[in-house]
Design a protein that fits this description.
Blueprint (H helix, E strand, L loop, with lengths): L18 H11 L8 H14 L3 E5 L2 H11 L7 E5 L4 H9 L3 E5 L10 H12 L11 E4 L11 H11 L2 E5 L7 E2 L8 E2 L7 E5 L12 E5 L2 H10 L8 H7 L18 H12 L1 H19 L5 E2 L7 E2 L5 E5 L8 H10 L15 H7 L7 H6 L3 E4 L7 H17 L3
Parallel strand pairs: 2-3, 2-4, 4-5, 5-8
Antiparallel strand pairs: 1-9, 6-7, 6-11, 8-9, 10-12, 12-13
Helix pairs in contact: 1-9, 2-9, 3-4, 3-7, 10-14
The structure holds pyridoxal-5'-phosphate.
């Protein structure tokens, strides 16, 4: 049977899996121990060193990491957390898992990172009971997202959190590796290196390193680490590997009603090898991103992603914004044109305040976050992955140029 649609000639993403990674997984499969065990311990130790954190807890997703982080921080029913509207579902849903309220914050038009002026307005409005349909709320934390791999200004985050007495959890799903520095004379600080109470990374299939599905919570706080470790595995006082290793395999104590969020050794084996190449893969993505910037510089109908000073950009995404006033087609038709040319794309994201659940539950409207409402409609992410060939990139550039030329107003 003929497939209904041809797979794109250039996919939006293709994971980079080296022979060493395949072999590492095969070794685990033949080792006799498949679930969380020695590879997970190794991956956690390597990861903690890589980002410069004291503790790392390997989990089966970044969503699990975010959930465990807010649970360990004691987020309670009815409290509120500042969450950027420009993010994936996970960042806000974990707040809902705790029966708390995500207060959605608008973004900057260029970086799509959260806008601290709006965070200020929303925090005050939430505390004063001025959010539609909500009583005065106790705002206790914030979850900045480093969109596409550009870190949110760390100094601004710290100032804001201190002034408003908030904890900070990084949604670092895009930020491996990413770094920030105050100025040219200051040292680089890696995302996860004390940048938040807990930083949460993703190893989903299309993230900067992958274990198929997977995530990591890192923290310098040993109490938070201990709580997250226990809650990641049914609230048991000791994990299965520890019991096996010490010979008392049958005994454990349930100390809390925990979750089932542990990573397998199969996935960790992949993660250990991917992590070794994280910097090298970032460099490859950066070269491709710079090449895109060069080749697309004279296409008037698109705006390129900003180069922000004093950031080491993870280049998880390469988003462009269409200058709709110069085109006869909208973003969705533009995506279809690229698809017809065999180019895979994605959109990051339909903002949370424009989803039915958040509109129904919390009365968010298009006007709640006007920048996100306006900007997401002209944004599209182009393919960017370390194994992308020059031919593939030229095909993307040619498809963008021709779609813009054909539909010039
Ligand atoms: C991918 C992603 C997540 C979720 O990661 P999982 O590992 O799939 O749970 C969370 N936040 C952002 C911003 C993401 O892009």
């Amino acid at each position: 049977m003929r497939p209904l649609r041809m797979a794109p000639a250039v996919p939006f993403f293709r994971p980079s899996i080296a022979d060493a990674e395949v072999q590492a997984v095969v070794d685990v499969l033949q080792s006799g121990w498949l679930t969380s065990g020695p590879r997970v311990k190794q991956f956690e130790a390597d990861f903690a060193v890589f980002v410069g954190a004291k503790h790392a807890i390997a989990l089966n997703s970044a969503t699990a990491a975010l959930h465990l982080a807010v649970e360990a921080l004691g987020l309670a029913r009815g409290q509120a957390v500042l969450v950027p509207t420009m993010t994936f579902a996970s960042t806000a849903e974990v707040v809902r898992y705790m029966d708390a309220v995500p207060v959605l914050v608008d973004c900057h038009a260029d970086s799509f990172n959260l806008d601290f002026d709006d965070a200020e307005r929303k925090c005050t409005a939430a505390r004063d009971g001025r959010l539609p349909g909500l009583p005065p709320l106790e705002v206790v934390g914030m979850i900045p997202v480093h969109v596409g791999g550009v870190m949110v200004d760390l100094a601004a985050t710290r100032r804001f959190a201190e002034r408003h007495q908030l904890w900070v959890v990084d949604d670092a799903a895009h930020a491996l590796p990413a770094a920030w520095r105050r100025d040219a004379a200051a040292p680089w600080i890696r995302c996860g290196e004390g940048t938040a109470q807990v930083s949460c990374f993703s190893f989903y299939a299309n993230k900067t390193i992958t274990t198929g599905e997977g995530g990591m919570a890192v923290t310098d706080d040993s109490q938070l680490a201990e709580r997250m470790r226990i809650m990641a595995l049914h609230g048991l006082s000791r994990d299965a590997w520890e019991r096996y290793r010490t010979g008392s395999a049958w005994d454990y104590r349930i100390v809390a009603p925990g979750f089932k969020y542990n990573l397998t050794d199969i996935a960790a084996a992949l993660g250990i090898e991917q992590l070794k190449r994280a910097d090298e893969m970032r460099t490859a993505r950066e070269s491709l991103a710079l090449e895109y910037r060069d080749r697309l510089a004279d296409v008037d109908a698109i705006e390129l992603p900003p180069m922000v000073d004093h950031r080491q950009h993870a280049w998880h995404l390469f988003p462009v914004s269409l200058r709709l006033e110069q085109l006869t087609i909208g973003r969705d038709a533009f995506i279809e044109q690229l698809h017809a040319s065999g180019i895979g794309t994605s959109v990051h994201w339909r903002p949370l305040h424009l989803h039915p659940y958040y509109q129904d539950q919390f009365k968010w409207t298009a006007e709640s976050c006007p920048t996100a409402t306006r900007e997401w409609q002209r944004r599209v992410s182009l393919p960017l992955f370390p194994g992308m060939s020059a031919d593939e990139q030229h095909a993307v550039v040619a498809a963008v140029q021709s779609a813009c030329a054909r539909h010039q107003r």
